[in-house]
Each structure stands twice: as structure tokens, then as C-alpha cells.
Design brief:
The protein has a single domain, classed as Eukaryotic RPB6 RNA polymerase subunit (Alpha-Beta Complex), CATH 3.90.940. It contains 3 helices and 2 strands. Strands 1-2 form a two-stranded antiparallel ribbon. Strand 1 and strand 2 form a beta hairpin.
């Protein structure tokens, strides 16, 4: 994991982070556009969700997933 993901996991907890990644992955599987260009955008929504967090395109504020 990257420093950003590690820090976020430390701040909110591993279970909560996993829940948020899964939520975003489900949005991507339902047809939401990827917020980053990546090779995994069409094939692996979980990797895409992680890449979105790593790039800062998605942030978490008061337990709400927000897209910048």
C-alpha cells in the first residue's frame, strides 16, 4: 500500500477503509466513470478504487465518500 492508504487506514481503521473501497468498487461496477486513467479501470474495479484514493481523486470526510 502507499503512504496515503496506510495513513487513511490508520486514521479510520482497516474495516472502515475496506468498506469504503468496496462501496466505490460497486459504484464502478454499476457504471460510474473512473476518476483516474488506469489499465485496471475496465477490468478490476477494486484496483481502480484504490488508485482513485491514492491519487487524491476521492477523499473521506466525516465518514462520507466524496469525489473531488
Amino acid at each position: 500500500m502507499t503512504k496515503r492508504i496506510d495513513k487513511l487506514t490508520e486514521d479510520i481503521g482497516q474495516f472502515h477503509m475496506t468498506t469504503l473501497i468496496i462501496k466505490r468498487a460497486r459504484e464502478l461496477m454499476a457504471g460510474a466513470p473512473a476518476l483516474v486513467e488506469t489499465d485496471s479501470s475496465s477490468s478490476d474495479p477494486v484496483k481502480t478504487a484504490f488508485e482513485e484514493f491514492e491519487s487524491g481523486k476521492i477523499s473521506i470526510t466525516d465518514e462520507v465518500l466524496t469525489k473531488d
